[in-house]
Specification:
By secondary structure, the chain is of the alpha/beta class. It is built from ten helices and 20 strands.
């Protein structure tokens, strides 16, 4: 079935839908991962985005129920050079086309993904419309230009949880909070996780490190958290621009005065803003499994998994120490507070998917939750 992808600057790509008829739009970005498409599809940080895979063949190992990062497909659409309809893997329970169809998400193949990636690198990420219904390039271009921009978009409201929950036996379980109080189950360190669109692999690793988790919605206030008496607070990843989340930023600033706090991705950005930093949009973002990051404190290079379109600038804050930088463009990838138990990274140390170079993050957070201060050795 013929399908068109039109970008807001008038560039148009022709391909075929492998999920049937439809029309959808979003910000078009590219991911350089050779594998991990199922984790990418279900990562809430991709909400509102149409993901183009740079690797030419996608879907050859199918889909399974063990590698998902949330309860649904989160991307607006999926763009590949060639989609494999007959996967070959003992873990596969469903093909990629059937999986996307079941979740009502469009997929397009046959597009020159190298040309699309190069165009995005040169001109930046931009809005696009994918359609089998409307095949007039000019009309689709007009529709793309009418889509809301990712800059200034509060997408967390679409991905945060609706009620508190715990993580047990590898799955979320509803949690009961009575009159603002929660009965923690044991002697493990107690961690409140702000779920802005948290990846399940993060929750798996927090649990594996012996932490008791209570995940809460993005609009949970400082007073509500304080009543729960946690040992530490964790700020998750999530989609969109951090700057519009002013209520959350205010809450985080209060949390930093009373609890050890750590964050990943959007959590890193919100921490930076809450402490007085600034945020800005990257030209085409960092999306992939092979981004080199340098740990400045340890003088060591880590290969990291990344997925973000915004970045934080803390250069004017002398009470924060830059701990990690991206070696591709020298943007900030991590920082710590010099006096308080606060640290964060922009990349994804849970590596779902990706290399495991940075999983020491969770060991450090676990020690911080137990001891009340950051352990850097």
């Amino acid at each position: 079935m013929k399908a068109l992808l039109a970008l807001e600057d008038g560039t148009c790509f022709e391909g075929e839908s492998f999920t049937g008829p439809g029309e959808t739009g979003g910000e078009v970005i590219f991911n350089t991962g050779m594998t991990g498409y199922q984790e990418i599809l279900t990562d809430p940080s991709y909400s509102g985005q149409m993901v183009c895979m740079t690797y030419p063949l996608v879907g050859n190992y199918g889909v399974n129920l063990e590698d998902i990062e949330s309860d649904r497909v989160q991307v607006a659409a999926f763009i590949v050079k060639e989609c494999c309809r007959e996967p070959s893997n003992w873990r596969s329970s469903e093909s990629l086309p059937d999986y996307l169809k079941r979740h009502g998400v469009m997929g397009i193949e046959g597009i020159d993904t190298r040309a699309l990636t190069r165009h995005t690198r040169i001109h930046g990420a931009m809005r696009g419309i994918m359609s089998t219904n409307e095949l007039d390039p000019d009309r689709l271009t007009q529709k793309a230009g009418e889509l809301p921009s990712m800059h200034g978009a509060n997408l967390v409201k679409n991905t945060t949880c609706s009620a508190p929950y715990t993580w047990e036996a590898g799955a979320p379980r509803a949690a009961e909070i009575k009159e603002g109080k929660y009965t923690w189950s044991g002697n493990k360190p107690r961690v409140v996780v702000y779920d802005f669109g948290v990846k399940w692999s993060i929750l798996r690793l927090l649990h594996a490190h012996g932490l008791e988790i209570l995940a809460v919605p993005a609009d949970f206030t400082f007073e509500q958290v304080k009543a729960l008496s946690p040992d530490a607070v964790f700020l998750s990843n999530g989609p969109g621009d951090p700057a519009p989340l002013q209520d959350t930023i205010h809450n985080v600033s209060l949390l930093c005065e009373h609890f050890p706090v750590a964050g990943i991705c959007l959590g890193h950005q919100l921490l930076g803003l809450a402490l007085g930093g600034d945020s800005y949009k990257l030209k085409f973002g960092h999306h992939g499994l092979n981004h080199p990051v340098k740990s400045l404190r340890e003088d060591r290079i880590e290969i990291s998994s990344q997925n973000h379109g915004f970045c934080v600038d803390i250069s004017r804050l002398d009470f924060l120490e830059k701990t990690h930088i991206n070696l591709n463009d020298n943007t900030l990838e991590g920082f710590r507070h010099k006096q308080k138990p606060i640290f964060a990274v922009q990349y994804h140390p849970e590596a779902g998917p990706g290399p495991h170079d940075s999983r020491y993050f969770f060991t450090r957070f676990e020690k911080m939750a137990r001891l009340g201060h950051e352990v850097l050795t």
